[in-house]
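Chapter summary example.
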Amino acid sequence: MPFVHKDAAGKILAVYTEAVDGGHEVAPDDPALKAFIQQNLPGAGAGNEWMESDLALARVIEDLIEVLIDKKLIMFTDFPAGAQKKLLDLRGLRKEFDLVEDLFGAGDDEAFDASSSDEGGLL
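The structure predicted for these 123 residues follows.
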């Protein structure tokens, strides 16, 4: 939980990760805390661009590791145990997702087009 220092009017002046003298604990989703962070850290409230960028980069690195392993330029066992576990977990999740996508398709089923029905749909 974050800790904050407030002025006499209740405006947040500082935020801390640990308890400090004169500090008050607040909920992480406190509106005043969110406003303080957005005001003092430009880009903090800009949305998910950073997260999306990081996720995309993580996928690129994962694919790069797969290519390096396939070309035998690096051995899977060269990675620390924690990294091996994460890579195996990700590989398993990707296989599960691919299986579900193969079973149900991408949602663009050409065999059924409700707009071409004369009845206007089933419901």
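To summarize the output: Helices lie at 31-40, 49-70, 81-104.
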